[in-house]
Design brief:
The protein is of the alpha+beta class. It has 3 domains: about 45-165, Immunoglobulin-like, CATH 2.60.40; about 190-355, OmpA-like domain (60s Ribosomal Protein L30, Chain: A), CATH 3.30.1330.60; about 360-515, Serine Threonine Protein Phosphatase 5, Tetratricopeptide repeat (Alpha Horseshoe), CATH 1.25.40. It is about 45% helix and about 20% strand. It has helices at about 5-35, 40-45, 210, 215-225, 250-270, 290-300, 305-315, 320-330, 330-340, 360-370, 375-385, 390-405, 405-420, 425-430, 440-450, 455-460, 470-480, 485-490, 495-505, 510-515, 520-535, 540-550, 550-560, and strands at about 50-55, 60, 65-75, 85-95, 95-100, 105, 115, 120-130, 140-150, 150-155, 160-165, 190-200, 235-245, 285-290, 345-355. Helix 17 (about 470-480) runs antiparallel to helix 18 (about 485-490), helix 18 (about 485-490) packs antiparallel against helix 19 and helix 21 (about 520-535) runs antiparallel to helix 22 (about 540-550).
C-alpha cells in the first residue's frame, strides 16, 4: 500500500536506514575496542609479546643468598583493564625448587590494591631473593605467570626462563682461621747480679778489717769462686760504687765518696780479685756524692712513724741542702734517721755482673722428653714453640699450666687444639684464661666461633685483637658476608689463597693471577681454572682443572660449577 504522502514515506525509510548503519558502527567499534584491549585469554596466549630480563644473567650466591633483579615489560594494548596477572618466581634446581610469594599486577579497572599496569603498557622491576640450598649451583630462575579474570585462572603458555645459576665461587674461601701462639719471654743470655757491701764509719774512708771478714763478703767470695765450675755462668765485670750519706756539706761528701771508692777498690783487688782466689774481672769504680736514692729506699722500707712526711719532703725539694735542712727541722725524726738510716748509707757496693747462658734449642727439645720438670715457665713455652707435632705441644702446655698456672700456656693449649681440629677441647682450654683482653686469646676465641658458624661472635672477638692474624680472619668474615672490597683491603699483601680468591670476586683477574703465580696445588689450580675460564682461555682452564681434579672434592665441584659452563 502506498502512502498518501510520498515525501513523508521517503523520510521514514531514511531514518530506518540510518539506525541500521549506526548499530553496525557500534558493533564494529565494540569489536575494535575488544580487539585493542585484548582479552584475558589472549593475554595468556600472547606471552611472547612480554619482555623479561634479569640482572645478573648468571645468578650468584652472596652471603648465603641469591639475589636477582627481574624486569618485565608489557607492550601497549596487552594488559586487559579488568585482569590480574600473578607472577610467581621459582628457582628450579636438581632435586627440587624454591618458590617465592607471588607478585600481583592488575589492570586499570581492577579494584584491588596491586601494582597497576596501564593499557599503554609498562615496565615492572622486582628484586627476588632466595636462601641458598645445596644443589642450587646447578639451577635456573623462571617466572610463572597466570591471568586471573573473574573466577578464572588462565596460565601463560610457558614459564619465562630468565637466568641460570648459581655461582658459588665465594664458598671456596678458607675458613679454618689464621692462628697465632702467644710468645714466650725466653732469653738465650740472662743478665744476673750478685752483690755485697762494706760499711764505713762517719766521715771515714778507711776499710775496717771486720768488714772484709763479714759473712756477706765471705758469701760473695764463695759465689765468685764457684763460678769457675759453672759452665753456664760467666763473670763479665764488677762494679764498685762508693757513697756518702746525705748529711753534712756537699763538697765534703763529694770528696769523701771519692776516697771511699779508692779504698774499696784497693780492698777488693787485695781480698777478692787476686790470683790466690782465682777470680779475675774488670772492675769499674764510681762514686755517688750523696746517696739520696738509697736514703729514700731505706725510709720507704722502714717503720719510721713520720716516713710519709720525709718522703713528701724528698718529692717537694730537689736541692740537697734544702732537703737536709727540712729533715733536720724534724728533730725527733732526725734522731731516728741518724741512728737507723744514715749509717747504712756510708758504704761501698761490690756488684758482680754475670751472664747466664740458657738452654739451647736442642737442649730444650731434649729436656722435654728427658727432664721436663727442671724447665721454668719461659723455657716450657719456648720448648713448645720448637716442637712441630701439635700433640707434643699440648703435652708441654699442659705441664706449664700444671706447674705455673700459665695464662699464655692456656691460650696456646687452645691454639694447639685448634691446629689439631679439636674445637671443643680448644674452647674448654680457652675458658680458663683469666686475661680476656689478651690479643692472642681473642684471636683464638674468634677462630672457635668462626668454625662454629657464628660469624657475628667471631667478628666481635677478632675486633678485640690487634694481631695481623685477626685482620686476616676479619677478611674471611667479609668474604662470607659479601663485603669483597673490605676483604681485599685487609688481605692486601698476604699473597694467600684467600687474597687471590677475593681478587677474583672483585673482578681483578690479573691481580689474582699474580698472587697465585706458578702454584700447582689443587686448590690454587682451581682458582687458576676459574680465571682462565672467565678470560675465555679454554686450553688453560682445562689444564688447570686437570691439576685441580687431583682433589676428589674439587673434581666433583667442577662438574656442576657454572664458572665452567662455557668450556664444557
Amino acid at each position: 500500500m502506498r502512502l498518501l504522502y510520498p515525501k513523508i514515506e521517503n523520510h521514514y525509510f531514511k531514518i530506518i536506514k540510518m539506525k541500521k548503519i549506526f548499530n553496525v558502527l557500534m558493533i564494529v567499534a565494540a569489536g575494535l575496542l575488544i580487539q585493542s584491549c585484548g582479552s584475558p585469554k589472549k593475554m595468556a596466549e600472547s606471552a611472547e609479546e612480554v619482555s623479561v630480563s634479569c640482572n645478573p644473567q648468571v645468578l650468584e650466591v652472596v652471603a648465603g643468598n641469591i639475589k636477582a633483579d627481574v624486569t618485565v615489560t608489557f607492550p601497549e594494548d596487552f594488559f586487559h583493564p579488568k585482569a590480574i596477572v600473578e607472577v610467581v618466581p621459582a628457582l628450579v634446581y636438581d632435586g627440587g625448587e624454591t618458590v617465592l610469594d607471588p607478585v600481583m599486577l592488575q589492570g586499570e579497572d581492577v579494584t584491588e590494591n596491586y601494582q597497576v599496569v596501564a593499557e599503554t603498557g609498562g615496565t615492572i622491576t622486582k628484586t627476588f631473593e632466595f636462601a641458598y640450598e645445596e644443589g642450587m649451583e646447578n639451577s635456573h630462575l623462571e617466572l610463572r605467570m597466570t591471568v586471573i579474570h573473574k573466577d578464572k585462572r588462565i596460565p601463560f603458555t610457558a614459564p619465562y626462563k630468565v637466568a641460570d645459576g648459581a655461582n658459588t665461587t665465594y664458598m671456596l674461601v678458607k675458613t679454618n682461621g689464621s692462628l697465632a701462639y702467644a710468645p714466650d719471654a725466653y732469653q738465650a743470655i740472662i743478665s744476673e747480679q750478685n752483690e755485697a757491701q762494706i760499711l764505713y764509719l762517719i766521715n771515714s774512708a778507711t776499710v775496717r778489717p771486720s768488714q772484709l771478714k763479714s759473712d756477706e763478703i765471705k758469701a760473695f767470695q764463695e759465689f765468685l769462686t764457684n763460678l769457675k765450675a759453672d759452665e753456664r755462668r760467666e763473670l763479665v765485670s764488677t762494679d764498685i760504687i762508693a757513697y756518702a750519706s746525705p748529711d753534712g756539706k756537699e763538697d765534703f761528701n763529694a770528696e769523701l765518696s771519692e776516697r771511699r771508692a779508692k779504698s774499696a777498690s784497693d780492698a777488693f783487688n787485695k781480698k777478692i780479685n787476686n790470683k790466690k782466689i782465682g777470680i779475675e774481672t774488670t772492675v769499674n769504680t764510681t762514686n755517688v756524692d750523696e746517696d739520696w736514692e738509697g736514703f729514700q729506699e731505706l725510709v720507704s722500707n722502714s717503720s719510721i712513724e713520720d716516713k710519709d712526711l720525709i718522703l713528701r719532703v724528698l718529692d717537694m725539694y730537689s736541692d740537697p741542702a734544702v732537703r737536709e735542712r727540712e729533715i733536720k727541722n724534724m728533730s725527733e725524726v732526725y734522731t731516728t734517721l741518724k741512728k737507723d738510716i744514715l749509717p747504712e748509707l756510708r758504704r761501698a757496693r761490690f756488684i758482680a755482673n754475670i751472664e747466664f747462658t740458657n738452654y739451647s734449642n736442642e737442649e730444650l727439645t731434649a729436656l722435654v722428653n728427658d727432664n721436663i720438670e727442671i724447665l721454668d715457665e719461659e723455657a716450657l713455652l719456648r720448648a713448645a714453640s720448637l716442637l712441630e707435632d701439635a700433640n707434643q705441644k699440648v703435652t708441654v702446655y699442659q705441664k706449664a699450666i700444671e706447674k705455673f698456672n700459665s695464662d699464655r700456656a692456656k691460650v696456646n693449649l687452645g691454639v694447639a687444639y685448634l691446629t689439631l681440629g679439636k674445637n671443643a677441647e680448644a674452647e674448654n682450654a680457652l675458658a680458663s684464661v683469666s686475661d680476656k683482653n689478651c690479643a692472642y686469646y681473642n684471636n683464638a676465641m674468634g677462630v672457635v666461633a668462626l668454625r662454629k658458624g657464628d660469624n657475628e661472635a667471631a667478628a666481635a672477638a677478632f675486633n678485640k685483637s690487634s694481631l695481623k692474624e685477626a685482620q686476616y680472619n676479619l677478611a674471611v668474615i667479609d668474604i662470607l658476608n659479601g663485603n669483597y672490597a673490605d676483604a681485599a683491603s685487609k688481605l692486601n699483601g698476604e699473597a694467600s689463597f684467600n687474597e687471590a680468591l677475593v681478587n677474583i670476586l672483585n673482578g681483578n683477574l690479573d691481580a689474582a693471577s699474580r698472587i697465585l703465580g706458578d702454584a700447582q696445588c689443587p686448590c690454587k689450580s682451581y682458582l687458576k681454572a676459574i680465571i682462565a675460564a672467565r678470560q675465555g682461555n679454554v686450553e688453560a682452564a682445562n689444564a688447570a682443572l686437570e691439576t685441580a681434579s687431583q682433589d676428589e672434592a674439587l673434581a666433583e665441584r667442577a662438574e656442576n660449577d657454572i664458572e665452567f659452563a662455557k668450556i664444557r
